[in-house]
Design goal:
Length: 636
């Protein structure tokens, strides 16, 4: 796991000192080695920070060049099937100088070009420079993995093209993009190709890009998508669980390959418990597990983590936080560039720090809920559909409008407002942050006018975030299929995986997600009937069957929390002090008068903690973006 960075200049040679400074802003992601390569004319550069996991020798140093120097690569991630690919490429005549998966990836691109992406089983973001020849122009190729485990930001303008694993390594300072801000306030993250920094983009998951350097033409395309839902007729729960278990065990075997110690982040939830069980099953030696405890909190799951650890005789480590305090966020502030409103970033960051004291690689349970219907939203939607499915939509919208007019944080407000388009769309309209009504309050009048001017939408552009979520379920087959596809294409890559990447790489800890092996993803979305995922009786039906096979009988998985904190309680404890300190650094588009109303509501018992936390993180990010590195033209 590493950090990648690079640039193409359209004006003149790049300054290696500036390049090294940008690269080293990402030193936390790769403390073991640093490298830089520049083209002969100095106009193209690739830089790298390395966290050594596979092939710890200098043979894994990056940037890496192929045998004749035509290709140069920087790579962040792991190719789990690199040994099989290595054998295939060796049979084609490729000779290898190292044991690293980076060299295998470079050879795969040389052999198959962009078609190599369909052969890769892994998590990755990489860039390859091809200097070209008499028939092929010089180009830069970039790609991200299917699910979006590894990040890739870029900026393309008249000065050139620059990319990096994190926003902080791109030239700045950065202004806030208003449309991205609208998405952030609605969702708690900036989705897809968008970025909070104006002029900056993210390469979306399952996409690649080619920059033709001579013509300056940049083209992006999707190379993979979820398969259509074509459930296997007559598939029984036992058959589905058998197939899921076989795929998971093979996924785990691939992800247990490492030249450094491996552990498991064990929250006590079902998915991380299954990962622990499978790690113990296919691994060798005693497994190390790590968890987060908050005694007295209703969200504490440390006791369940201990039960699983005892059952599998793991070497268990526990980090206890006795007193809730958002001051932890101040310690994390330098790492926050693009804002993320998910407060579980804090306990995830803490437990990753604990894990890094013992291991370099850790396994997590991300993805199981999206694949197999694990969220409570799914069963709730089925119950709501039975209760209100016959209620006319105009009446639902009228009731939702009445609820939306209530003050933020009033109990039941979001629940009723979310049903405006029926039970199946509640996950779109039920954000814990700022819905359309609240965004009209929290954004200034000038911001709302500017947002309206940027779009032809009759709602003044406010509905863009919700429209994007609705689009993810187009062509789906049934309510559960629609909801899981929406979550898989939104909150999973743009919130949960971002959170895990930031929290882990802040400590130079590599995180692997066995449940997100693309073969398991395709099986879950293509072959499994909705009825085997969620029903009126409950959720996570296949996972529960696996738990009966693999986990202790006395394990209780009726609750679902993961590494979470009671954000309303934490905000009341000392968040107001922190909020008052940081709120002056919010972007000018935020209406200051609404801040007091949110704070007063919190102290009156309303559930405004998540909204205030989102604004607090936005203020920190805005402050960091305003102090970002030098503009690209000063690097020339």
């Amino acid at each position: 796991m590493c950090a990648i960075h690079g640039a193409v200049s359209y004006r003149g040679p790049l300054d290696p000192v500036r390049l090294a400074q940008a690269r080293d802003r990402l030193a936390h992601r790769g403390p073991d080695d640093a490298g830089m390569w520049q083209s002969v004319d100095g106009r193209v550069a690739l830089t790298h920070r390395r966290l050594s996991v596979i092939d710890l020798t200098p043979g894994g140093h990056q940037p890496m060049l192929d045998e004749d120097g035509r290709l140069a690569i920087v790579f962040n991630g792991e190719i789990y099937n690199f040994e099989a690919l290595r054998q295939e490429l060796s049979a084609l005549g490729h000779a290898f100088r190292s044991r690293s998966d980076t060299e295998v990836l470079l050879a795969a691109w040389r052999a198959w070009g962009s078609a190599c992406l369909s052969r890769l089983n892994g998590m990755f973001a990489f860039a390859i420079h091809d200097r070209g020849d008499a028939t092929t122009p010089a180009r830069l190729f970039l790609a991200r993995d299917r699910v979006g485990k590894k990040p890739l930001y870029y900026r393309h303008d008249s000065d050139g093209f620059v990319f990096a694993s994190e926003l902080k390594a791109l030239p700045g300072p950065h202004a806030i993009d208003l449309r991205a801000l609208n998405h952030y306030l609605a969702l708690g993250y900036v989705p897809g190709a968008g970025c909070i920094a104006s002029g900056v983009h993210k390469l979306p998951p399952a996409h690649c890009a080619i920059l033709e350097i001579g013509t300056r033409r940049l083209e992006t395309r999707r190379y993979w998508a979820l398969p259509p839902h074509q459930p296997i007729t007559g598939l029984t729960m036992q058959d589905a669980a058998d197939r899921a278990q076989a795929l998971l065990e093979d996924s785990m075997r691939l992800r247990m390959v490492s030249d450094v110690p491996i552990g498991v982040l064990l929250s006590g939830g079902l998915d991380s418990s299954l990962v622990t069980a499978l790690a113990a099953r296919v691994g060798s030696g005693r497994i190390r597990t790590f968890t987060f405890a908050q005694p007295g909190s209703p969200l504490d799951e440390a006791a369940r983590a201990r039960l699983i650890a005892r059952h599998f005789d793991t070497e268990h480590h526990e980090l206890t936080v006795e007193t809730p305090s958002l001051s932890l966020l101040e310690r994390m502030a330098p790492l926050i560039d693009e804002p993320l409103a998910d407060s579980s970033l804090i306990p995830t960051w803490l437990v990753c720090g604990l894990a890094r004291t013992e291991v370099t690689v850790a396994l997590g349970g991300d993805g199981g809920d999206e694949l197999f219907g694990g969220y409570g939203d799914y069963a709730q939607a089925l119950r709501d559909e039975r209760r209100i499915g016959s209620v006319p939509k105009p009446l639902l919208r009228a009731l939702a409008g009445i609820a939306a007019a209530l003050p933020a944080g009033v109990r039941g407000r979001n629940r009723l407002a979310a049903l405006r388009d029926g039970a199946g769309k509640a996950i779109v309209w039920g954000s814990p942050y700022f819905d359309t009504t609240l965004r009209r309050r929290i954004l200034t009048r000038d911001a709302l006018s500017a947002l309206a001017a940027q779009t032809t939408d009759r709602q003044g552009g406010l509905l863009e975030p919700e429209a994007g979520l609705l689009a993810l379920s187009e062509g789906s087959d049934g309510m559960i299929d629609a909801m899981t596809r929406t979550h898989f294409g939104s909150i999973l890559p743009d919130d949960f995986l971002v959170k895990v990447d930031r929290a882990s790489m802040a400590h130079a800890l590599e995180m692997r997600s066995p449940l997100l092996d693309y073969r398991l993803v395709e099986f879950a979305f293509r072959d499994v009937p909705d009825a085997l995922k969620a029903s009126l009786a409950g959720t996570r039906l296949i996972q529960r069957e696996l738990s009966r096979r693999l986990l202790p009988a006395d394990a209780d998985f009726t609750r679902k929390q993961g590494f979470s904190i009671p954000i309303d309680d934490w905000m009341r404890a000392d968040g107001e002090r922190l909020f008052e300190q940081w709120s002056p650094r919010l972007p000018p588009m935020i209406e200051r008068r609404e801040l007091r109303s949110l704070l007063d509501g919190l102290h009156a018992g309303r559930t405004n903690g998540a909204r205030l936390y989102a604004l607090l993180v936005l203020a920190i990010a805005n402050d960091n973006l305003g102090r970002a590195g030098a503009p690209l033209d000063t690097c020339l």
